[in-house]
Design goal:
- The structure is a homohexamer of 302-residue chains.
- With 302 residues, chain A is an alpha/beta fold.
- In chain A, 45% of the residues lie in helices and 10% in strands.
- In chain A, the strands form three sheets. Chain A has a five-stranded parallel sheet.
- Chains A and C meet through helix 5, helix 6, helix 7 and helix 8 of A and helix 1, helix 2, helix 10, strand 13 and strand 14 of C.
């Protein structure tokens, strides 16, 4: 290959690609500066995981004082990284002037840090719930080290607090990190009680306006989704309560879809592969009639 | 443990494992040299992502000339890495002699680079389509930073161009990288128009001979698959058009399977959990009758 | 933000978070020391992948003696890393005294290494099976480099041997690594024969007590699960055979659920989206009657 | 070792070491924030080396436009890193208020960048001079890649410009980096003309107030030092001109010491092991009378 | 190049090089296991530097409690790394049985950690002495960040404590690390008082049995060496006091050699380039008569 | 700082710096491609160190077969890295056509590898010599791990073989790496016998045409240099034998300079600080008469 033409092709495309299209311009928020960094947010969640499960993901220290040294260092690192990312994210919120952003970011992150003990408490209830639901789980350590739901819930429970604090963009990036590595897609806006378990988890979708009680268990492929949505006058969908309310002690088996702002009453069991679009009272047992036949085939579904 | 026996066990297995079975020999292409490297291909897609969305994944530069410096460096790096990988991949294609491979690789990669502006244009339409489909999306930046479909489409749109250029192995490795991190499995051979959106995405499968129009939207778990396939005289399946054609402005809701070389006419809506194996005309509304009963249970589907 | 108050918040939460709750104490095994490290286990599987497919993931060496040098180094590294992790894992097993753990770990790992040639043999049958099942597969190399099932089976086949050796925690962590990157969730306790193929794979779940014969093929979203399970007197589910037996030459298409300790007889074909909770004899063709209507809609299932 | 006592010892020393002694307090400048980072300054000099010798330390590009892309990226990186370090260093200068520091740092760094073409020009004269002085040098490339003087002069010439701009601390750290890797210790305050060569170089010391002309050559172990210095009323030494002036075309051979504010006239040659403390006129040949005897030994000098 | 012959050459030399010569066997201590790692020892000294100068090499924290968290983490890391290296080093000492080594290593390292506050105190006296000796030093920070003597003394003062504790091999490796980066070669066995300064430093050698008082200052190229040494009956040199004693407040200028077990009395000044092999009383001023002539040249000393 | 002016300054200097001066053009060899990489050459010497001292710098393996696996892998890595660097270096040699370079590089590197056993043998004699010369050396391991001469001799002995093979540039870069980290500057062209020792070493210079016998010992600061050199008609110095010949069993103490093509006869001892420019017969004892006086001071030599 002639060097000349290689360089011609490269430079020709540099010229074209360096021009911002009008579309591209629309995507950028006001002011200068970097966007939140996905890699740093990943590191932030790792720090949180190490703070919550210090024996598993950081280092095991029996001595409480030594352990508190590790916690102090990690909390300060967390504070410092998260303040930087929060400042970047606040550029997407027009409420604050450029001058207020630094103070606001610090204040929001401190409020987040004050929630860490509660996040930790909730996550241990999730571990316990998962252990109690799976006959294949041999001990709590195995659950913490290998169950995807634990990974997903660390991300969700941290992201949900950040979402409640009104920080833009970051909560969604954090839950998407968990979605990517577990196949469990929980919108940070969803509200989820304690002792929450998901087994296997691939394909689970939990929508933004869901409200989930305590002691709820889901299996793989469960969708808690919207039935449909309305558009505003610009044709952009309107963000209203549109996902289900799941009350305490409900179990939903694999691949079922619960759709719309309906309520599944407490102590209900929803079987696998159910398509549910209306509310059911407490104590319901929803199981679909099934028939299997060898009669008619219209495709194998490869 | 006795050192002697440790070393005996190690060396015994070294001896066995270093012999290539006949099966193993069949897997290796002609000639010498390394195989395409999955890690380098991952880096290549990262470069492309930074070239397409320079504000998000590389660095934000308002000044067009400075930005073009970054683009120049990244394009040259991309060229150099991709030429090496393409040379390795061309060993699987018997069309070229060993001597022609270097020139051919360079020429193919330059043709790929000439397509980058179009790849970029298409990806921005995908971002816009996704934003317009999700009430939970607050701004374009959130979509680019956190929606799995954007990640999947960067991989697919680059891989599809490489596939059209006839480069072996690499396109499939690239789309599988996206499948691994998003659960969205798009075969690089599929043809997909502009403004393409997938929400949530886990479990989506789009087969090799699919043809998808503009403004099409899919939800999680949608399969655009084959109904069945014929075998050749060696018992190996024959690669013929066997996946659906989806026309413009079609929406397919979660967990539906569209199977075989059928056509879903433009402006159609396919509801969730549909199993469709025959063509439907433009403007169709396909929604399955559902009944939920508490009568008969034959398993919870854990 | 006032530095004083930042530090106050950090130190206040250090104090709270450094106290172990009673719940937290229950999760820790006897004795001192670190837990198995997920990152090291990831490295261990990479070594195994390089040992099994030396041309693809390590380095291509035609000369058998040179290749055996690479194998020797990798096998010794594998031995050394896996002994350390096994020692850590054996803390979860009360059978061994602290003193016996080191010898036991070494002995177990050597038995694992003696199984590597058989693991390799089985994996090559899986590659061949996958190649023969997919018309889009151009050659064996593409299958090895890009098909998620190969990645999943390396993890599963290694984890299953470790599970048979009775090593706690580690097998589950290893298969979960594959679940995270492929969406294929195979419990290490499952028994799977040779020539096993899974296409696409996202959402596949294979339970702990499954028994799968030779030449079995699955598609995405297939669940081989439990129908329900009994609890012991503590309310913890009992670990008994509760997942299906799939005989030789069975194919199960996408999104079907086979639930409970039932048997699918050899040479059977189970179509897509089937919900099967009773045994079927050899040679069965199970395909569900489907009707599609536009009559009644109770939700789109977003 | 008893875990308890290990932790006791650690915590006891944590308590002692975390208290700042009064001495320690004196060392810290006003305000908050990090100190200049030695590692970042190392990276900054690497960038400069790549900018000055792009073929050697960065990447060889015949095409001027492609080369300018690399330069643009490296210059911007240099700007951004050096501004941060300069801000940190300006804390040591009480001239600027906290508010002025950011603007001042940026302005100083831009003035530095405007000097880079002259730094480059001077360094090429040094390379040429070195090449012309050493019969063992085969080509310019060998000189640039392996002669310690080139490494030392990149550090010195950059540090000297920063020193002239009045930036505290950083210039000295930069020349000390070269001292550490070459044994050549040039104070950034020294003034050195073009075509400067040092062969071997270990042990060369060039003091802060030296003035060195063009076409000067030094050999290993040469000291251009002070004869003595006066103390101020606090007993701290006074910083006045106290090092030699070396005029054009002077050569000084190995291990000679030229001490005090004296002048070595142009075209002079100072032989090896000379101890010179008074000025010499242009054209001098200073060579020491030597006698070697076997008569009297008072030590071997191991 | 023919692949066959490449592999032949490689394998032929593998065979030769893998045989241990008798000479090689003599170099290995009893037992199994790794040797102390130079890289880990480098990391250990970095930890010590960060513990002693937390504002400079670790991170600046005004809050004492936060700072103590960093210290706790670093001290524990130091403890853990140094215990491992000490165990490895104790293999060279036949005093301890294999079983005693672990306990002994831990106990020695704890005694080292108990000396850290004193090491810190001494190092601050060295910084102060250096600052007071150099008119070019602008502030303490510049001294700590850039003066090679500080780097050398951190290594020496830590190594000397380890040497006094009788730990083999490690002390020498640590001081050699400083020698490599500063050109200052201090044997860990030397005894050095407080307020010790070395300017420039390249070529300084301080022998194993030196005794140096307080407030001593050296310049580059000073040797405190042996005059000669006696051999034992095996022809190996005998390790007896053979290096000088330098009393308080002595200054020795550049390139002087002080040789043998002589004493330089307190408050003495030794000029540059002096060769001193007999003791001198307190208050001495030793300055060499110099004559410079242009008469006779017997070589330039390139 | 105004963004506009920042970018203006950057772009202005990009323009200037991207133009190659005529001087710059002269430094580049014919053809295209990268220059030898200093970092890769560093890695190459590390590999050699691990091959020669496998117990110290690679890993300790009692089992000869396991050890030979490590050697095989390292030798192949060495071969592959060194062939690439040699190709790059051969661009500086006009003897070979572009087409011959690849074969020639491979052939030269194989000849180098065939010398490794002899390099190893020589290095063990150096270790033994050093051990026998230093009363402070406790065992061979300490010498190998911490004595700079060992590091310097690994570089020199490898570089000398490459120099004898006629490979340009690389030998000098390799010995300069040792010079940088030890202060010992040995030109790769020098010829040095077995059992060679240098204590401390800082400032030692050994010129290109030196010939050194067996059992020679040097101390710090010794120069084996040229007295002066002749220029060719272009004013470039001529490369003729111009450095000393040191016969067997010679010891030269610290800071002595032996200059010119003279011979130091076998069994001679040269004391410290000697300036020797004429040959001395075997068995010489050259020690300088010294007088120390307090009479006349003309400078302290700071």
């Amino acid at each position: 290959m002639d060097r000349i033409s290689v360089e011609d092709v490269l430079l020709r495309n540099v010229r074209i690609l360096s021009k911002s299209s009008p579309q591209e311009m629309r995507m950028v928020p006001r002011g200068e500066g970097s966007f939140p960094s996905v890699d740093v947010l990943k590191e932030i969640v790792s720090l949180i995981k190490g703070i919550v499960f210090p024996d598993f993901f950081d280092c095991h220290r029996n001595n409480e004082k030594i352990r508190s040294c590790y916690l102090g260092v990690n909390l300060e690192k967390l504070y410092s990284l998260l303040v930087t990312e929060t400042r970047r994210a606040l550029r997407f919120d027009n409420t604050y002037s450029e001058d207020e952003v630094a103070d606001e970011a610090s204040s929001l992150v401190l409020r987040f840090i004050d929630e860490l003990p509660e996040i930790k408490r909730l996550l241990y209830t999730d571990v316990e719930a998962m252990y109690n639901n799976d006959p294949a789980a041999d001990n709590f350590a195995e659950v913490i080290l290998s169950y995807p739901v634990v990974h997903a819930m660390v991300h969700y429970r941290a992201a949900h607090v950040l979402w409640r604090l009104g920080i833009p963009v970051i909560p969604r990036v954090i839950t998407e990190l968990a979605h990517s590595s577990t196949g469990i897609d929980i919108n940070p806006g969803a509200r989820i009680g304690e002792y929450f378990a998901i087994d296997h988890g691939t394909g689970v979708v939990i929508g933004e306006t869901c409200i989930i009680g305590n002691h709820v268990t889901l299996y793989q492929g469960v969708t808690l989704g919207a039935k449909n949505f309305s558009l505003d006058s610009n044709g952009h969908p309107v963000n209203v309560p549109r996902h289900p309310i799941i009350e305490d002690y409900v179990t939903i088996y694999s691949n079922s879809s619960i759709l719309g702002r309906i309520t599944v009453g407490r102590d209900s069991i929803i079987g696998g592969n159910i398509w549910l679009t209306h509310s059911v009272p407490p104590g319901s047992r929803i199981l679909q009639r099934r028939e299997v036949s060898a009669v008619f085939t219209d495709g194998l579904g490869i």
